[in-house]
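User: Quick sanity check before I run a bigger batch. Here is a single chain. Can you write out its predicted 3D structure?
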Amino acid sequence: MTTLTVLIADDDDAQRGMQKLVLQEVSKKINADIHIEETSDSIQTLKMLEAVKFDLVILDNEFKDGDKKGHLPGIAVLQLMRKAGPNMTTSTVFCSGDPYDTLKSMAEKYGAVYYPKATADADVMAALYAQLLRK
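Assistant: Done. Predicted structure follows.
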């Protein structure tokens, strides 16, 4: 059985938990083991993206580590990820709680699939993740 590695980068414990449940369903759909790494701030996320090659990255935009030196929003993390390192071409789902989808075009410009948290649907997310992991 194939093992795939997914990074869930989100500062919200509940969001990470929901993403893990969705990925458990995806694992069954695509008949693969999914190893999940989690990060909860932008600094930790950047370090992980520089060190590990992922099959899928689920990236939040808002991290609550603004008081730390080196903090970046998720959109900046996405831009840096696309410039260098092992995840330059990794399939990425960019999640945002912005009700106006102001970052959609920028996320798509950097090759991410934009997914608004306001319309989160576990079945739709599972289908999307399965599609991206099959690539």
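The mean pLDDT is 94.

User: Great, the batch can go ahead then.
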